[in-house]
Each structure stands twice: as structure tokens, then as C-alpha cells.
Amino acid sequence: MNLQRKIITLRKQSGLSQEDMAEKLHVSRQTISRWEVGSALPDAENLRQLSQLFKVTTDYLLNDAYESDGDIPRVKNAEETLEKTVKNNQKLFLFAAVAFIVSAACFMIAGIEQHNVLLMIVAAVEITLSGFHIYRYEKAMKP
To answer: 66 and 78 share a domain?
Structure first.
């Protein structure tokens, strides 16, 4: 899909008229029309504004072979890496929380000061909550 078609598609998906889009980008409606028919191209600043408005990369806008941001190899790799990192971090947080709880139980049995045991339990709770937030973030990032 070429740039003109992408601009039309993104504008319509966003529910914007040419006038609305022109207002948001601080250009005239005729400028939007020229972009959409291909008689003019947006300059670098307008491309940056388009990418921000529609929440897509400039790579996606400029490369005719890309049908979505997901087609860009760099984006694909970043999404896969993020998913693996989040899963590894979840396991790490869970392991650390369990280790703190087990250590706290051992210290309690051994008669170590209650203050230190309470600190370990608080640390375990904080680690568990951090792991929970990572889990929620991962769920939010998935389409």
C-alpha cells in the first residue's frame, strides 16, 4: 500500500474528515487532499506529525511493502524480545518472592529477630506486586 492510500485509510479509521485532520496537523484541507491524491508529499515534519497522530512509525508510512507496523522487522523483533523478557522477569520475581518467604520462615524457626523476618516478608510482598504489575503490562501490550 502506498503513502497516499495509507493516509486515506488511517484518516478514515480514525474517523477524521480531511478538515479535522488538517486542523490537527496545522495544514490546509487542500494539503491533505493533495497528499491523498498523490499530487504532493508530506515533508519530514508532516510525516512525523502523521506518525504521531495515527500512532504508527514513519517507516510504515514510507515503505510501500509494509501493510502494518508489525511488518517492520525491527518492530517484530522488539515485540518478540519484550514478550520473552516479560516472561523471564515474571519467573525471576516469583522465584525471588518464594525465596524470601522460605528464608523468612527459616529465620522464624531459627529464632532470628522478628524485625528482620518482617522486613523479608515485606520484601517478598513488594517483589510479588512487581511481578503482578509486569504481568498486567504484558497483558495490556498484547493486541
So the answer is: no
Q: Are 79 and 69 contacting, i.e. CB atoms less than 8 angstroms apart?
A: no
Q: Which three cell numbers stand for residue 123?
A: 520484601
**What is the residue range of 9's domain?**
3-71
Per-residue pLDDT reduced to its tens digit, 20-66: 999 999 999 999 999 999 999 999 999 999 989 988 888 888 888 77
pTM score > 0.70 for this model?
A: no
* Domain count of the fold of the chain: 2
C-alpha cell of 72?
517492520
Determine the Cα–Cα distance for residues 13 and 65; give it in Å rounded to an integer: 20
Please tell me whether residues 83 and 105 are part of one structural domain.
yes
Rounded CA-CA distance 99/115 in Å is 18
User: Based on the domain organization, do 77 and 51 belong to the same domain?
Assistant: no
d(CA 64, CA 5): 10
Question: How would you label 18-39 residue by residue, b for 16+ Cβ within 10 Å and e otherwise?
Answer: beebbeebebeeebbebbbeee
